[in-house]
Design goal:
Elements lengths: L4 H38 L6 H46 L8 H20 L3 H14 L3 H14 L9 H17 L3 H13 L12 H10 L1 H5 L4 H9 L5 H4 L14
């Protein structure tokens, strides 16, 4: 059975959430395994101090590359789902509401709309004409009819457009916003929330002042940890042998700690 657009949106949101969990699991796995390897080197009595430094740097490079490649794959998948999510959400938000009532109900609404338009245009008191509009808008709790009101609003208020009364303009503005609000279906509301997420597409695993960053830095070094959210650039530097050695010599970044509970 073909999935609806809102079902696809929910599916993309679920996949995005899964990817975030996957990234956190990768981070935890990296920290745990790297610390175990560092500890093994530390306890190896067959290695000299220089030998331990060489071994530790090899471990750091291995886990930095492995972690960043894993994050690169996660980022690529994340961006793909964000793209799908944005496209689908825009389609749902932009689509006209579908009418699901009877022909008689639709005909009654259209007749009422024409009646209000005529009465507003002919009314000699602007404040009472505005009240006619307010009352009509308030009655339209069906999303389809509310959308029709928003589309017809310019013609509905055309005879009042020249008013200089600020209070009347404010009331008309509120009536219009009410019609807009009532025209939003549950599906469109969900799509709008998803669209807000897709407009902020950057994948953020950790930030520089978070404990997760401190732990990651302790096993990968500062630059690799800072590249967790944007791994591609650092992987390219590693491939070209352009790592900043003054920052990546083991001992130039914080030593991993092995206290219980870490």
């Amino acid at each position: 059975m073909t999935k609806t657009k809102i079902e696809l949106i929910n599916e993309y949101l679920e996949k995005i959430g899964t990817l975030k969990d996957k990234a956190k699991q990768l981070q935890l796995k990296t920290i745990t395994e790297a610390r175990a390897d560092y500890n093994e080197i530390k306890l190896n009595r067959l290695l000299s101090g220089e030998g331990k430094s060489i071994e530790r740097e090899q471990v750091r490079q291995f886990y930095a590359e492995t972690f960043l490649k894993g994050m690169q794959d996660i980022n690529a998948e994340y961006e793909r789902y964000i793209k799908f999510l944005k496209q689908m959400s825009q389609e749902v938000v932009a689509a006209p509401n579908v009418y699901s009532g009877t022909d008689a109900q639709k005909a009654l609404f259209e007749s009422s709309l024409r009646d209000v338009q005529t009465r507003v245009m002919l009314h000699h008191k602007q404040d009472e004409a505005v009240k006619l509009i307010e009352d009509f808008v308030r009655k339209q709790d069906d999303a389809y009819f509310a959308q029709q009101v928003t589309q017809e609003f310019p013609s509905l208020v055309s005879s009042l457009a020249s008013t200089t009364d600020a209070a009347l303009k404010q009331r008309l503005t509120y009536a219009y916003k009410t019609a807009q609000k009532n025209s939003v279906t549950e599906e469109k509301l969900a799509a709008q929330k998803a669209l807000e997420l897709s407009d902020q597409p950057d994948f953020v695993l950790t930030v520089s002042d978070a404990p997760s960053f401190v732990n990651l830095r302790s096993v990968l070094g500062r630059q690799a940890a800072q590249s967790a959210n944007e791994p591609s650039v650092h992987l390219e530097r590693m491939a070209l042998g352009k790592e900043s050695k003054e920052h990546y010599e083991y001992g130039e970044f914080e030593q991993p700690t092995f206290n219980e509970g870490q």
